[in-house]
Amino acid sequence: MCAGEFNIPGREVYTAPAKNSVNGTISYNTPCPYQGKIFQDVVLTFKDGKIYFDDVLIRDNGIFVLDSLQAINSENLM
């Protein structure tokens, strides 16, 4: 059972949407450690295949999150 005590892939999602077609919101309320930081109540909003991060930038460490994501694929960030 995945209860957040071990690094078991219990929060992974795999999909293959058509480019520029994803619309909607995905969220989870389980704390997620990443590089020494703990992210909670994560909400991602997609519009026409792009992710909007207005809420993330308002929070503390928002710039840290944006820098990390830009390193992955900056053309899809708004």
From TrEMBL:
<dbReference type="GO" id="GO:0046872">
    <property type="term" value="F:metal ion binding"/>
</dbReference>
<dbReference type="InterPro" id="IPR052170">
    <property type="entry name" value="M29_Exopeptidase"/>
</dbReference>
<dbReference type="Pfam" id="PF02073">
    <property type="entry name" value="Peptidase_M29"/>
</dbReference>
<dbReference type="GO" id="GO:0006508">
    <property type="term" value="P:proteolysis"/>
</dbReference>
<keyword id="KW-0479">Metal-binding</keyword>
<protein>
    <submittedName>
        <fullName>Uncharacterized protein</fullName>
    </submittedName>
</protein>
<dbReference type="GO" id="GO:0004177">
    <property type="term" value="F:aminopeptidase activity"/>
</dbReference>
<dbReference type="InterPro" id="IPR000787">
    <property type="entry name" value="Peptidase_M29"/>
</dbReference>
